[in-house]
Amino acid sequence: MNGQVQQHHQQPQMTPDEMAEMDRQKVTLLHFLDSFRGSAPTDFCFAFQVNQSLIKYIEEFKFPYISDVSNYEKLLKIGQGTFGEVFKARCKKTGKMVALKKILMENEKEGFPITALREVKMLQQLKHENITDLIEVCSSKGGFSHNRDRSTFYLVFAFCEHDLAGLLSNHKIKISLVHIKTMMKHLFNGLWKIHRSKILHRDMKAANVLLSRDGILKLADFGLARPFYMGHPRQLYTNRVVTLWYRPPELLLGDRQYTTSIDMWGAGCIMAELWTRSPIMQGDTEQKQLTMICNLCGSIDKDSWEKVGSCFDELAVCLIDELLTLDPSKRLDAEKALDHMFFYTAPYSKDDFKDLMDTVKTSQFEYTAGGGAHANRGRPVGAGQRMPHRPQVSQTGQFHDMIF
């Protein structure tokens, strides 16, 4: 061990800028490690006090820097929201397409945002075909002379050409029952993995469902996700989560001891949207949203939902009905949803829906940016905010309010 330390001490002397960058990364690392214990330190001094042995270890070794964002060539801005910006980019070394999610740092007084740390932490646990692939975290370098010596951080994801909200808004794209079954099987598989890992997604909506060119569905946006615990009494969580149009009745009524059933409600809304091509309950206030839910639920039939008609598969209606159950304790979980007869009757689901993706010649993000789809569909709405039935575009006027 002493030999290792001496070897690192013999490294070339660092410049002042490199030393400042190293100090910043020490603090970021301490925040990150502390987040694994359940909460972030409230200030830097506290972080250093409770991690004395770790500090000594860090100071004896020079850790490699986070990758530089200059390793990627930005091609197109495809997203804008409160979280920051999202770019389509190309890795200069491999030529592969990626999505760069810029982390908004302007309002952070304590370094790297805790919400981003949680997202990174959970995505590291959730390695699954139907969950978005986090490749790495990178940062911009050379910004020491401004922005209080802070780098700009990016989360690097494998690029998916489409999101479900954009795909559904393009009515030229025809989606068959086989495609719907395959997509929903992928979605439930992703939710099964998330819930089995004791994580709540808490923002299920069509804009957070990505579709790859190979016909694989991936759940995305873990910015509101959090671990959950099954102890008694159950832990209290905030009920200010889930986009309004996909928010289950228990959250609208103020429940703070909710379970994975809140994600299953969102899955039911998304499934119905595969037929209607737009969100099925578009309330512009919490009161109106709750009224719409009461008018639709429990059983779905032609009297409660005129659009159900002959275009719906009978077993599909049955599955949606069991997902959009008012009592969260009676709502299907992901495993039971996968066992539903909907998936065991003809036409059967396939391994992927690549044949559908082959008919879509333009990335839906580029289609949206060009004005071909409604921007900002299904964005989160806080208390006191209003949303029109047809969502307005974002302040940029072009992009989905979505997180990869």
Description of the structure:
Residues 72-343 form the Protein kinase domain. ATP binds at residue 101. Belongs to the protein kinase superfamily. CMGC Ser/Thr protein kinase family. CDC2/CDKX subfamily. One of its GO terms (molecular function) is ATP binding. The chain has helices at residues 2-9, 16-35, 44-50, 52-60, 114-125, 164-169, 177-196, 249-252, 261-276, 286-296, 314-323, 334-338, 354-357, 364-369; strands spanning 67-68, 72-81, 84-91, 97-102, 134-139, 153-158, 162-163, 199-200, 209-211, 217-219, 226-227. The chain is α+β, with helices and mostly antiparallel strands. The protein folds into three domains: 2-60, no CATH class; 67-158, Phosphorylase Kinase, domain 1 (2-Layer Sandwich); 162-369, Transferase(Phosphotransferase), domain 1. The protein has a six-stranded mixed beta sheet. A hairpin with a 5-residue loop joins strand 3 and strand 4. The longest helix is centred in the first third of the chain and has 20 residues, at 16-35. The two termini are 41 Å apart. Residues 1-11, 34-52, 54-64, 142-148 and 370-404 have low confidence and may be disordered.
